[in-house]
Specification:
This protein has helices at about 1-15, 20-25, 30-35, 40-65, 70-85, 90-95, 100-125, 130-155, 160-175. The chain is mostly helical. Helix 1 runs antiparallel to helix 2, helix 1 packs across helix 4 and helix 4 (about 40-65) packs antiparallel against helix 5. It starts with a helix and ends in a 7-residue tail after the last helix.
C-alpha cells in the first residue's frame, strides 16, 4: 500500500502503472493482482484509508476541547497537518486526477460531508441554528480549511504551519463566533 501511495502521489492515477507499483513494492505483478483485482480497486483502497485519516483527524480535533475557539483552531490545524504530512496522501483526496470517476468522487466528497456533519452538529448545538444553516456554515469552514492548507503548502511563502493555522483559524473564529450561543 505504501508503495502504491508513493507511485499514485508522484504520478497521478492515469500515469501510474501496476508494473511501477509492483516494482516499488518488491513484488511481482501477479502478487499485486492477488490482493487487488485492478488499479482502480487499489486506488480506492488507498483513497479510503486517506479519507478515514482526515475524518479521524477532524473528529479528534473537535473532541479535543469544549472551547469553541480552540475547536476551530484544532480543526483548521487538522487540515494543515494532513496536507503537511510527508506521504502526500492528501493529493489523493484533494487533488485526484480521477474525480470524474463516480466512485472516486464519492470517496473524495466523503471527507467534506463527514467533517462538515461533525462541525454542523457542534454549530447547531451551540447556536440553535437549523440543520441546513449549520451545515452550510460547516461546509464553508471545511472548504476554508482545505483550500487554505493546500495553498499554504505550495504558496505559503515564509509562514510556518503554526503561523498559517493562527491566521486562518483567527479568520474563521471571527466569523463563526458572531453566531450567538443558545442556552
Amino acid at each position: 500500500m505504501s508503495a502504491a501511495l508513493e507511485v499514485f502521489v508522484a504520478q497521478g492515477y492515469h500515469s501510474a502503472a501496476m508494473d511501477d507499483i509492483a516494482e516499488r513494492a518488491g513484488v511481482s505483478k501477479p502478487v499485486l493482482y492477488q490482493h487487488f483485482p485492478g488499479k482502480l480497486e487499489l486506488y480506492l483502497a488507498l483513497l479510503d484509508a486517506s479519507c478515514d485519516t482526515m475524518i479521524a483527524n477532524c473528529r479528534a480535533a473537535l473532541e479535543s476541547t469544549h472551547d469553541n475557539k480552540q475547536r476551530v483552531a484544532a480543526a483548521i490545524d487538522a487540515f494543515f497537518g494532513y496536507v503537511a504530512h510527508d506521504t502526500g496522501a492528501f493529493r489523493l483526496v484533494f487533488e485526484s486526477d480521477l474525480t470524474n470517476e463516480p466512485e472516486v468522487r464519492a470517496h473524495v466528497e466523503r471527507v467534506t460531508i463527514e467533517c462538515a456533519e461533525m462541525i454542523a452538529a457542534v454549530i447547531g448545538e451551540d447556536t440553535g441554528l437549523p440543520a441546513d444553516a449549520s451545515k452550510l456554515l460547516a461546509v464553508s469552514l471545511v472548504g476554508m480549511a482545505q483550500v487554505s492548507a493546500r495553498f499554504w503548502l505550495t504558496e505559503g511563502g515564509g509562514l510556518d504551519r503554526e503561523q498559517a493555522v493562527a491566521l486562518v483559524s483567527g479568520l474563521a473564529w471571527r466569523g463563526i463566533r458572531g453566531y450567538p450561543l443558545t442556552d
